[in-house]
Amino acid sequence: MRVLLIGGTGPVGLSALPHLLEAGHSVAVAHTGAHEPPGAREAEHLHGPRAELLRKGGPVERWRPEALVDSFPGGATAANARDLGLAAERSGARRIVA
Fold first, then answer.
1. What is the mean pLDDT of the chain?
2. Residue 25 gets which letter from DSSP?
3. 54 and which of 1, 6, 61, 87 could share a cystine (Cβ 3.0–4.6 Å)?
4. What strands lie across the sheet with 44-47, from one edge to the other?
5. What's the pTM?
């Protein structure tokens, strides 16, 4: 399965990443790119601010994930949830974990 971790360089993403890779999933980590943690080297990286990553035609949509895992860096707000849902719909993701 193609799994995209949003905010994947934090504790949630870094904890989930090795398990997802071990299970044979293709994994990408979407984050600002401010730092590259050593524990995330095996995944593809999508860099940019959250709004840019999730925008129509943006990196998340182009990567075509089947599942989105969002740790809501910066806080879980109605606007962030809406943007996540729209990105999932546009990219064809059938599963959201938030």
1. 93
2. -
3. 87
4. 44-47, 26-31, 2-6, 67-70, 95-97
5. 0.92
